[in-house]
């Protein structure tokens, strides 16, 4: 980690929450912010731990996951450049209720919780932004639950790919098919079949643990209504 420099603050504009803050909010928080590289598969916080830092992703994607007793995990929602990690636990001042898993490695601003809370208490604008983002996160979690119940694995895979592109601003990222199977709660063989079909249609290219989106429009035609309902760009457009 290193202290955020001017060029890093420019990069921070890619985060929707940061971009929506006032200049005063940015100046105060910028003095405490640290630019961090988040390696893929790192666990930033484990269920039951206190939220000591919040992360504002710049080009990384962080999954809120629940680990089950049998070793399986389930993804509840994701946070990318539209928002901030651990928001519900931060707002409630409670231990986090899930693990924060780095699904796509990249950069993020890390800010100590105490500094973030002090600024929220002093800034009605930031407080309103965080309440709005909390509401958006609840919508996403509810829509995810419906999607995982009623929509096909193909539609869910495509939605995950589209939203990951939205959240990271990247069209290529490290992604093992077994990781995607775990995150979506699907059989690896099913995920393999879906990715193979998408590759055959030239919508994506999957090679040696990396996936590249080749034809976004083709993916949009195969996704479900949930992508539009919880598209991560929606909150960014509203602010």
The CATH C-level class name of the largest domain: Mainly Beta
Overall domain count: 2
Structural class: alpha+beta
Q: Do you know the CATH topology of the largest domain?
A: Jelly Rolls
Largest sheet: 4 strands, antiparallel
Number of helices: 12
The radius of gyration computed from the alpha-carbon positions, rounded to a whole number of angstroms, is: 18 Å
- For the largest beta sheet, what order do the strands appear in spatially? 1-2-8-4
CATH architecture of the largest domain: Sandwich
Shape: globular
Taken in chain order, the helices and strands follow as EHHHEEEEEHEEHHHEHHEEHHH
Number of strands: 11
Helical content (DSSP H or I, runs of 4+): 40-55%
The CATH homologous superfamily of the largest domain is named Jelly Rolls
Residue windows where pLDDT falls under 50 for at least 5 positions: 1-7
Keywords: DNA-binding, Transcription, Transcription regulation
GO molecular function, one term: DNA binding
Protein name: Crp/Fnr family transcriptional regulator
Pfam families: HTH_Crp_2
């Amino acid at each position: 980690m290193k202290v955020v420099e001017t060029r890093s603050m420019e990069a921070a504009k890619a985060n929707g929450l940061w971009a929506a803050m006032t200049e005063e909010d940015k100046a105060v928080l910028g003095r405490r912010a640290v630019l961090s590289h988040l390696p893929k598969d790192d666990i930033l916080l484990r269920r039951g731990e206190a939220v000591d830092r919040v992360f504002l992703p710049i080009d990384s994607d962080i999954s809120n996951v629940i680990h089950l007793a049998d070793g399986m995990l389930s993804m509840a929602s994701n946070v990318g450049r539209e928002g901030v990690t651990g928001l519900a636990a931060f707002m409630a001042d409670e231990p986090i209720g899930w693990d924060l898993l780095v699904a796509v490695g990249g950069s993020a601003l890390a800010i100590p919780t105490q500094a973030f809370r002090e600024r929220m208490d002093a800034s009605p604008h930031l407080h309103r932004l965080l309440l709005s983002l909390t509401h958006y996160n609840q919508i996403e979690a509810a829509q995810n639950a419906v999607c995982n119940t009623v929509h096909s694995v193909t539609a869910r895979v495509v939605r995950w790919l589209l939203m990951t592109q939205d959240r990271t601003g990247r069209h290529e990222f490290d992604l093992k098919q077994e990781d995607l199977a775990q995150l979506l709660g699907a059989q690896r063989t099913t995920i393999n079949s879906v990715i193979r079909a998408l590759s055959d249609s030239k919508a994506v290219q999957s090679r040696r643990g990396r996936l590249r989106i080749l034809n976004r429009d083709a993916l949009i035609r195969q996704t479900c209504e949930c992508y539009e309902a919880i598209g991560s760009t929606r909150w960014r457009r509203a602010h």
